């Protein structure tokens, strides 16, 4: 496996990741090394990491897993732990976990004493191919996702597909949704390849997804233009995810499950507004419904979801802009969508 | 009055500041303009700003003044206000206040939706010559100052010495301590000039101080080396400030009052370790005691202050490094100080 070069850090896989981690820590004079885990990664991933990492870990900081804990109070707990354990500017934070943990750990590291080094070791497929790559860090504000954060790159991102063995299939599929997105926005051949797969954790696909995300981020790190294509499916997807998180009667959707719905809906908008063929649209719907069960939405649900849209952080001046597809593998950004199409998109999803 | 050029923003004074503000807002298409005030700046400075600023302000956000409110919960309040008032990525936050407000407003703006534009309009002498310049933003963690934050530059810093007319003399002197520091670390002529003054708000001195700070920050924005000289007096000064804030029986010291003591103490260390002449040391002590009453410290106070030292964010690997003076106008960084000298420094201060 090769390494994928990124702007100010590198993404390494398997043996190269192991070597990079040990070499990095040996070459730097970190005053303290902190490891951030949650109850799951402590149980399932820490033993594996102990086999991989030769260096000392001074303290293990534990937080509770789950999007519902991705808020500033959890950051406060980590900041206080770092401070109480004599963390200083030359400390290193290693984030061992899924996207919630790497987003939050990255934010805490970027703001502790105005920034200390951090390394991401994603343990879910979603975090490997998406969350841990690209430097977006942050937390939710109430039910609004990722409202508070900074863009800041880790020292390195290390990918060990072995961690995926401990993951439940629902989590794996959630990550696969982002990989499918990478095909949809940038690479039709990759999309065609992915929709036929039944092994969702193929290392070469993980690497292809990381490479696509990295290519995009490298060209536009602060999301002035091109990087926005990575938000395909996310504008409606985030609103759906927030809505289900807020409503305790509803089953919570995983991120990938929500954006899978978002991609069908935004696929419909693409067909209506940007000429995505009906054939491609139907292929998108059929493929996602092969991996993800259809979710029931009432009219009231849909109204509430559309209310949440206006809070999405990618909105500006009150308009909701979308990333749409002209064809599979060709995304366009900053498309305004007339409101009446949203209901039609849900109708297409439900039919 | 000229403008002082800084790295990615400009510092403007008086008429130029007025023109720069109005032009900047006219040239940009901000979706919303938010103004952050506290109860004091709302009362005393907002009416003045209304005369200066032609543009619309969509919402005024008010926080409580005072270092004791410089914590993450106040940030949470501002983030929520921005979110509830439909702030988005193209919003602007104008910070109208002292250093606590500009530090906190800068941090909130730097982290809201991963960063929106902000402008600092400092209303205290301390904020004009120090806090609002250089891009350090952040909040305290418990009694530990500025533990959480990022380095990020505002769009511009606007100086209106007129605001100082509403300030009480104790606040003015607090800012003067930082100006005296600028002389001590970089410019003996300026120091000699300042210690003879009785008008502490001379616009040309404000500008000289801003220029000194800016020159230093420009050469080393992220404090890898040179910028550390700005911490002269602050290592012990911060510990003293934190200690007095924590102990409700003690009168709280203003920042400048605390670092004035810090500069006498660190002047003593400079004499012991870096050859600062006894004559200069005595001049430093005499000058600060001319402006600032001597504070009583018991042995227990001093022990507690020295305990707090190890938490100072500029420490690394458990050692406490100091900025010391070789002569007035010549600072050196990263000097380790043997612990036994701390007690002697306090003894010199008290004698």
UniProtKB/TrEMBL annotation, chains A, B:
Its EC number is 4.2.3.4. Residues 175-315 form the 3-dehydroquinate synthase C-terminal domain. This is 3-dehydroquinate synthase. It comes from Flagellimonas lutimaris. Catalyzes the conversion of 3-deoxy-D-arabino-heptulosonate 7-phosphate (DAHP) to dehydroquinate (DHQ). Keywords: Cobalt, Lyase, Metal-binding, NAD, Nucleotide-binding, Zinc. One of its GO terms (cellular component) is cytoplasm. Signal peptide: none annotated. Its cofactor is Co(2+); Zn(2+); NAD(+). Residues 61-173 form the 3-dehydroquinate synthase N-terminal domain. Coiled coil: none annotated. GO terms for molecular function: 3-dehydroquinate synthase activity; metal ion binding; nucleotide binding. The lineage of its organism: Bacteria, Pseudomonadati, Bacteroidota, Flavobacteriia, Flavobacteriales. It holds the Pfam family DHQS_C. One of its GO terms (biological process) is aromatic amino acid family biosynthetic process.
């Amino acid at each position: 496996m090769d390494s994928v070069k990124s702007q100010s850090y590198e993404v390494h896989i398997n043996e190269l990741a192991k070597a990079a981690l040990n070499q990095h820590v040996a070459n730097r004079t970190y005053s303290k090394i902190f490891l951030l885990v949650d109850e799951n990664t402590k149980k399932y991933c820490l033993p594996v990491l102990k086999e991989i990492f030769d260096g000392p870990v001074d303290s293990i900081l534990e937080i509770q897993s789950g999007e519902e804990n991705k808020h500033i109070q959890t950051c406060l707990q980590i900041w206080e732990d770092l401070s109480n354990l004599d963390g200083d500017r030359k400390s290193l934070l290693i984030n061992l976990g899924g996207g919630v943990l790497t987003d939050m750990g990255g934010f805490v590291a970027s703001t502790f004493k105005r920034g200390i080094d951090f390394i991401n070791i994603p343990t879910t497929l979603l975090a490997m191919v998406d969350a841990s790559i690209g430097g977006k860090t942050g937390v939710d504000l109430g039910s609004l996702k990722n409202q508070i954060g900074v863009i800041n790159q880790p020292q390195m991102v290390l990918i060990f597909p072995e961690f995926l063995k401990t993951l439940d299939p629902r989590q794996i599929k959630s990550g696969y949704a982002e990989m499918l997105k990478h095909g949809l926005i940038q690479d039709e051949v990759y999309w065609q390849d992915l929709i036929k797969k039944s092994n969702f954790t193929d290392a070469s696909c993980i690497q292809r997804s990381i490479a696509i995300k990295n290519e995009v981020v490298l060209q536009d790190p602060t999301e002035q233009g091109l990087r926005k294509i990575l938000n395909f499916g996310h504008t409606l997807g985030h609103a759906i995810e927030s809505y289900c998180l807020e409503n305790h009667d509803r089953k919570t959707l995983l991120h990938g499950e929500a954006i899978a719905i978002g991609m069908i809906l935004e696929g419909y908008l693409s067909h209506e507004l940007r000429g995505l063929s009906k054939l491609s649209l139907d292929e998108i719907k059929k493929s996602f419904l092969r991996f993800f069960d259809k979710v029931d939405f009432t009219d009231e649900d849909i109204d509430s979801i559309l209310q949440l849209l206006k809070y999405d952080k990618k909105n500006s001046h009150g308009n909701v802009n979308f990333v749409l597809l002209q064809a599979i593998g060709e995304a366009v950004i900053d498309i305004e969508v007339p409101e009446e199409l949203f209901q039609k998109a849900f109708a297409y999803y439900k039919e």
